[in-house]
Amino acid sequence: MTAPTYHDIREEDMPLVEENGSTVRVVAGRYENIVGPQGQFVQPTVLDARLKPEAAFSIPVPDYETLFIYVLEGSGDFGTPSQTVEQRTAVVFGDGDLLNAKAGLNGMRFALFAGKPLHEPIAWGGPIVMNTEEELETAFHELRNGTFIKNK
Questions:
Q1: Euclidean distance between the first and final Cα of the chain, in Å?
Q2: In Å, how far are 47, 74, 122 from 23, measured between CA atoms?
Q3: What is the 3-state secondary structure (H, E, C) of the chain?
Q4: Residue 37, pLDDT above cutoff 70
Q5: Cβ(28)–Cβ(61) under 8 Å?
Q6: pLDDT in tens, 12-36
Q7: What average pLDDT is seen over the chain?
Q8: CA distances from 15 to 1, 61, 143 (A)
Q9: CB of 67 within 8 A of CB of 107?
């Protein structure tokens, strides 16, 4: 395990790809030949896609990565066979494939997340996620005592 670190990513660090009136912001990883911010240990792909009405989008995802999307605005069709997804809905696609999307009549904005699963245990409590219940208890103890955030 390594010490936690913070990476400040500003808007100017995230390339914007424009295609036929639609845009894809590369928050992390890569889209086509455009490379955005990279993680030190985990190499996720995080995209913010804004599609104009009835615009198409596709991206290959390696078979060792898990993919999910969250529709922020509008609606669209995803996958084969296509499945219509409305705003404020998340869909987990599983391991690797070619993701195909087509925006609905009012366009669509969605966030795409893909990455290699860590296969680690998860202990979750409110806004805090750790690996074990003991780590979670320690985190809440530190939060109550004001020592959760460590200064360098």
A1: 18
A2: 10, 15, 34
A3: CCCCCCCCCCHHHCCEEEECCEEEEEEECEECCEECCCCCCCCCEEEEEEECCCCEEEEEEEEEEEEEEEEEEEEEEECCCCEEEECCEEEEEEEEEEEEEEEEEEEEEEEEEEECCCCCCCEEECCEEECCHHHHHHHHHHHHHCCCCCCC
A4: yes
A5: no
A6: 999 999 988 899 999 999 999 999 9
A7: 91
A8: 31, 19, 36
A9: no
Structure tokens at 93: 């696609």
Region at 40 (left for phi over 0; alpha for psi -120 to 50; beta for the rest) = alpha
The three-point CA angle 43-81-87 to 5° equals 65
| pLDDT of residue 5 exceeding 80 | no
CA dihedral 95, 99, 105, 109 (to 10 degrees): 70
Q: Rounded distance, CA 127 to CA 64, Å?
A: 28
Residue 86: name the closest of 67, 100, 99, 105 by CA.
Answer: 105
